[in-house]
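Reopening this one. Same input as before:
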Amino acid sequence: MAKPLIGITCNTIGATDLTVKMGIGAPGQDFQGLAVDYLNMLQKAGAVPVILPITDKLEDAEELWSRLDGLLLSGGNDVSPKHYQERIAKECGTLDHPRDAYEIAAAQYAVRSGLPLLGICRGIQLLNAALGGTNYQDLLANGFEQHTILVCGRNEGTHCVQVERDSVLYHIFQCEQLEVNSFHHQAVRVLAPCLEAMAHSEDGVVEAVRVKDHPFAVATQWHPEMMFDSDQQLKLATAFVQACQAGRG
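Same output, byte for byte:
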């Protein structure tokens, strides 16, 4: 049986002196790129990953999405608050409007077409905004604990999340508590109407959601792809890949 083909959204990387010094570009040249962890995770789970280019030619993009068995919304910069009708706060980080537009269209396509979807970090925030929810622009400014934890390795769990019993996430992990990593300062605030929360951090931040009445559309605030040596965390990618395989008919 052929392995499922899963598209992964990527980051845009503006022209910098560093790329020229590294010998991979010319002055003024922009790039698009992705952390290798995402590719490794999906390959380990049994899929064939492909990096999706960000483009404003959405008709061409939809032609590509229609050939996929699954979509992964990757991590990255902040989602613009304009997508949930808020003024940009001073704590908001770097924005990428072309990427926002591309990923919102991709997320909406996956939801209406039933394409299996996995969102990670920015991916949960993007999915929420794309479907009508709002996000915290900065957790510390809104009274939460620090969620950007850089003193440990990216593959180390740094705090616990409580998983809702009988949720999709509970059935995947078979436990009510997970130790996860944490690299974010924004998070879901008001859930989109079609989303359901499946896990929360100790201080109440939404850490995982699913799209109701969808074959498989799950997003986490933590980074399972970075926890490359965790058999437990690989269970999420494996469940995603199995849903992509099942969707092939």
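So the earlier flakiness isn't reproducible anymore. For the record, The longest helix spans residues 97-113.
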